[in-house]
Amino acid sequence: MQHEWVILTNLLCLLLGFALLSRHFEKTRVPAVLPRFLPHDWKGCFALLAIVFVLSSFLDNIAAALIGGAMAHTLFRAKVHIGYLAAIVAASNAGGSGSVVGDTTTTMMWIDGVSPFDVMEAFLPAAVALAVFGVPAAIQQQRYSPILKHEHQHIRVDWPRLAIVFFILIAAISTNVVINVRFPEASDRFPFIGAAVVIALLVSVPLRRPDWEVLPESIKGSIFLLSLVLAATMMPVEKLPAASWQTAMGLGFVSAVFDNIPLTALALKQGGYDWGYLAYAVGFGGSMIWFGSSAGVALSNMYPEAKSVGRWLYHGWHVALAYVLGFFVLLFVLGWHPNPPHKAGAAAPKAPAASAPAAAVK
To answer: Structure pTM?
Structure first.
């Protein structure tokens, strides 16, 4: 605990802070305005998935999935196809996979010292995956229940609340950059990023009150996730498969049935990964089954008919296909380049980079 307390405290502050930030964003009324600009055919269905993708890049992926589910409930008159629900979850997980503020797993990498630029590689396969699963899912939905051409009443965006959202994000990002660039030796001594988010939230209270009511439920979920992370640190990394692109790809399939939080913690402890691959695999891979990610569980609570592994796999076949195609596009475009240890004492890579077949493709 003496060794891990900074990471755990940072993660707790960010989980709770981003829960409040997500509610701030919902109350800006921006999600209610966005559907005005959607085309009224299958391209509108696809555009909604793209909106969820973008929202998840700076919001928590759970919040992005719920916002997408709420917009879909209105636009499709509460008739949402199972395949499209799987696509909403996949879009939220894909959008968050390349951003250190978009998913708990990438935030863990960021806190642990991984560069945000290494994680951003995941946007390439994520964008490919969005195109692969987004088009068939949009066509499924348009055939099942066409998008509603709805004349929205005048909606006034809460600009001060939107400014608070960006203020909190800028505070977290700038603090991380300053600490890791100017004072890297101090990063293991105090939870600077989490403290920055908490201070930014408190400073903004006079402008707009956060929804403190979400904290009790968020605290319970956060403690559970932190327990998983702490348990994963006890795993002997020498017993794990060697870090390679094959292992990273396999972790994506494992994350569909096993929580991706401890998987990420184990990979960070082991070291030797190309972090863009890992971010994409553990972030997007859980979309293949409804309970494989927190976003899937949250959206399935909104649409109980989605709680069927068989129906999810049958109607959401395009998600698994998108994961595989996106992964191989990343492999052949950028190749496999394990990152050097980002912390002193990190485990050395067990497999040389030359063993990757994609090394010769570049």
So the answer is: 0.75
